[in-house]
Design a protein that fits this description.
single chain; alpha/beta; 6-stranded mixed sheet; 13 helices; about 15% strand
């Protein structure tokens, strides 16, 4: 056989030795051929990336067109205006709810602390730590709080997690029967081998800057607001679900709302975040000699193969935003043995909690069917790492975020601007189904830059990342202030939450499968 793309190699035979030191017989050299992919010089998937980028651009233009015709979308305005990142003092601040003077204090606090916040952003970026190993990052944030406001109550570690923390800020007149509590969240874990390819150092500083701004405002004027602010350090978002473990430890039981922000390649008020579940299945059959007695065996690898193919076929019957991705992580020990054991590791994702549950059922039926066809047994295990739920965005809170971002020169595009095809997952979804919350996105990278890449990690330590963290600090602080002071807003937040389904028993959500 000849092939222009095939390259054959063969080594000369030579004596070998076994473990006893005796010389084994000469063996013929193995022949290996390498085949280059026909499109190896192309970037695979580039065609889809181009289509998605075009789709995003079209949606942005549609939003701009609505504005120019006088039909402003509530989450978008004036994208062509010049931004002025990181220079909060002196920006236009709306006189809504009589809070303009307090917002100026928040803006001034962020501007005054800009150098120290920038240093922390860069330090965490330079010391990437993976899930539950974020000792440097969590300690750095806690130390910053203690240095700025030594009298605040700090719990570190917290909620049974070594790298989680809790800081409490309450007004002098705080009464839990009368006043509200809002939680501001910081993430800070990194990706193995990539570092901060999801920009969690930006998230960390955004939460810190917002909390310190509110603490500064209350220290300057005790009448600034009535209520309580909790600042949570939340580990292990990337490879586990630290927020779910914190929730099960009671972190959100006396919380009325929770807010955070995530870096992205565009300023957008909201984006789809899918729920995710992990599944492992182990098939157990009967081993036999694959040549002399194959009929005596029950092939577990056959079941794994049937399951993998069944999952692939199932994709035709699920929505475009759903995901099924799997690997066969064990398929036997030797080709001349009928495999007695084989296993798959599966992730599934869906945009809504009910559809995530429905997809879970369908996947388990496929796994059971594969066992039946191969005549083997199956053991299916769900969520050895806690599941992450779809994010439910609270619209009244989101509108306040957009308003705050406009005041610092950013103009987030409306939800739906970016295709749901680009959706990922986050454990903030687990929080948002327990209490009202928002998880908006802020630009640190050129449009089209994918998260979880080396390129995005680079962007997380740039002037654009610093500007985003400072703008987000003001934005989160402003939303928190609104929620604590504005009773009508709080009522609207609760009404929207209840209309969207109310609080969900996240821990027991899949128990009836």
């Amino acid at each position: 056989m000849t092939d222009a793309n095939a390259q054959g190699t063969a080594a000369h035979t030579q004596p070998t030795s076994d473990n006893s030191g005796r010389t084994a017989p000469n063996r013929p050299a193995a022949i290996t051929r390498h085949y280059d992919a026909p499109d190896a010089d192309c970037v695979r998937g580039s065609e889809y990336s181009e289509i998605l980028a075009l789709e995003t651009e079209q949606r942005k233009r549609a939003a701009d067109h609505r504005r120019k015709r006088g039909h402003k979308h509530p989450d978008h305005a004036h994208p062509e205006q010049e931004r002025s990142h990181g220079k909060h003092h002196g920006h236009r601040l709306d006189d809504d709810s009589g809070l303009a003077h307090i917002r100026r204090d928040l803006a001034e606090s962020v501007a005054t602390r800009a150098d120290s916040l920038t240093a922390i952003l860069k330090a965490i970026h330079a010391h990437p730590e993976t899930a539950y190993e974020e000792y440097f990052a969590s300690r750095t944030l806690v130390d910053a709080v203690r240095e700025a406001h030594p009298n605040l109550s700090v719990e570190y570690p917290a909620f049974g997690l070594d790298t989680a923390f809790k800081v409490e800020l309450a007004s002098a007149d705080y009464d839990p029967a009368k006043h509200r509590t809002i939680a501001i969240l910081s993430e800070y874990d990194a990706l193995p081998g990539i570092g901060h390819g999801c920009g969690h150092n930006v998230i960390a500083v955004s939460g810190l800057g917002a909390f310190l701004a509110l603490a500064d405002a209350l220290a300057t004027g005790p009448e600034a607001f009535s209520g309580r602010v909790l600042y949570y350090g939340t580990p292990a978002e990337e490879s586990d679900a630290g927020k779910e473990l914190m929730a099960r430890a009671g972190a959100f039981e006396r919380v009325d709302a929770a807010i955070m922000v995530h870096p992205y390649f565009i300023d957008v008020a909201d984006q789809a975040w899918l729920g995710r579940r992990e599944c492992r299945v182990t098939y157990t059959g009967v081993s036999a000699h694959a040549s002399s007695h194959p009929f005596m065996g029950r092939n577990a690898l056959d079941a794994a193969n049937l399951a993998y193919q069944g999952l692939g076929l199932l994709r035709q019957q699920i929505p475009g935003s759903d995901r099924i991705h799997a690997i066969i992580d064990h398929g036997g020990d030797a080709p001349n043995l009928i495999p007695a054991s084989a296993s798959l590791h599966i992730n599934i994702r869906s945009k809504h909690a009910p559809t995530l549950r429905a997809l879970s059922r369908r996947v388990e039926e496929v796994l059971q069917g594969a066992a039946l066809m191969a005549g083997v047994s199956a053991e299916v295990t769900w969520d050895s790492s806690p599941m992450t739920m779809p994010v439910r965005t609270n619209r009244p809170l989101l509108k306040r975020w957009v308003s705050a971002q406009r005041s610092v020169g950013r103009h987030p595009y409306p939800p739906g601007t970016v295709s749901d095809t680009l959706a990922a997952s986050t454990d903030f979804g687990n929080v948002s189904l327990r209490v009202p919350g928002i998880h908006p996105l802020i630009q640190i990278a050129p449009e089209g830059t994918g998260m979880h890449t080396v390129e995005f990690a680079h962007c997380a330590d740039t002037p654009a990342a610093v500007d985003a963290a400072l703008d987000a600090s003001f934005g989160l602080a402003s939303v928190a202030l609104d929620f604590l002071i504005d009773d009508k807003l709080a009522q609207a937040v609760r009404a929207d939450f209840e209309a969207s389904g109310g609080a969900v028993d996240v821990e027991g959500y899949f128990s009836d499968m």
